[in-house]
Amino acid sequence: MSWTEELVSELGVLWSKGLSTAEIGRKLGVTKNAVVGKAHRLALDPRPSPIIHRAKPVDSYNGPRCQWPEGHPGAADFHFCSAPVVEGRPYCPDHCTRAYMPPKPASEKAASRRAA
Ligand SMILES: [Zn+2]
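^ inputs. structure came back:
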């Protein structure tokens, strides 16, 4: 098989997105081994293992991790968000917004009270 310029740039994009070599191969229509070999020749960054590639890239972060549960407890894909947390909170900024969001905007509550 021949690597066109287009395929090579696509490989670089998919690679940087953290797709597994098998997934990249499927998308490009080449074998996993072809992907691995080409990536090696292009000296692309070494891949993390497929199991941890879904983790968000966080450089040398050793602080507390977001405890927000994702998925249903007991399900195979259940995991915690584990992004870096807001200081003093158990969750990352995104999940703090969700965890501490008031049930209703204050203005809406005041309006319904006036109507009653
Ligand atoms: Zn989170």
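The mean pLDDT is 83. Residues 5-42 form one domain.
thumbs up if we can close this ticket
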